[in-house]
Amino acid sequence: MQFGGLRAVDNFEVSIEEHELVGLIGPNGAGKTTIFNMLTGVYTPTEGSITLAGVDVTGKKPYEIVRHGAARTFQNIRLFKDLTVIDNIKIAYHNEMNYSTLEGIFRGKRYWAEEKKAQQECLDFLKIFDMEDYADTLAKNLPYGKQRKLEIARALATNPKILMLDEPAAGMNPQETHELMETIHFIRDKFDITILLIEHDMNLVMGICERIVVIDYGKIIAKGTPDEIKNNPDVIRVYLGE
Ligand SMILES: Nc1ncnc2c1ncn2[C@@H]1O[C@H](COP(=O)(O)OP(=O)(O)O)[C@@H](O)[C@H]1O
Ligand SMILES: [Mg+2]
């Protein structure tokens, strides 16, 4: 990905297996968010390609990529602030709903059945984060840590194959962060999905990721298991040099 004179991501090549939990780490400005922006169609890569479950999704629009099974959260929270918590999730869930516009207007039997099912399933997403009591709260009135969790719940409601989390613990205290990391691991197993997790604090991801990719100045400097990464001299240099 080239931004004018800046090669923000260079020669990045990674393949992720189904069900893997992979950490993408690197110092601030390394290019992590830019990688997510390419994977989710926010940016079209200047060169190269992206394949998702056998489908070439390079250059597709974000909503198309969501339908192919990729969901994400944002480093800077992007909720529908003036909607309730449950409505934020329902918007993400809409692809799962099966009634026609006419049935929606005339409120037919199927409309009520589908809406009831949606309400229940969206509450179930909230329960994962112990947030069902906040269903009717406006998103903007949630405490910060819960806004982050709501973003994850909303991404999950799109029924993704791969979930990409951009610094989900940013701004949380150590206790909240620890719980969130456990929840992320739990989600991967419960929904049988693949997770790509961005963090800049490498200690955070060591505990839960099976594999870690480290980038610096847009280039991969190491790939491997947490133990391999911990002992890699290039990684130590980048992190101690910070
Ligand atoms: N839209 C953009 N236009 C120009 N430069 C950008 C843009 N987005 C990111 N960058 C630059 O690309 C580099 C990588 O940024 P980013 O991907 O946000 O890093 P990270 O998420 O690892 O902190 C930075 O130097 C940043 O300033
Ligand atoms: Mg970033």
UniProtKB/TrEMBL annotation:
Protein name (database record): Branched-chain amino acid transport system ATP-binding protein
Pfam families: ABC_tran (PF00005), BCA_ABC_TP_C (PF12399)
Species of provenance: Dethiosulfatibacter aminovorans DSM 17477
Alphabetical list of InterPro entries matching this protein: AAA+_ATPase, ABC_AA/LPS_Transport, ABC_transporter-like_ATP-bd, BCA_ABC_TP_C, P-loop_NTPase
Keywords noted in UniProt: ATP-binding, Nucleotide-binding, Transport
Gene3D superfamilies: P-loop containing nucleotide triphosphate hydrolases
Keyword ATP-binding included in the entry's annotation: yes
GO CC field: plasma membrane
Stretches assigned to the ABC transporter domain: 1-242
PROSITE patterns in the cross-refs: ABC_TRANSPORTER_2
MF GO annotations: ATP binding; ATP hydrolysis activity; L-isoleucine transmembrane transporter activity; L-phenylalanine transmembrane transporter activity; L-valine transmembrane transporter activity
One of the protein's GO biological processes: D-alanine transmembrane transport
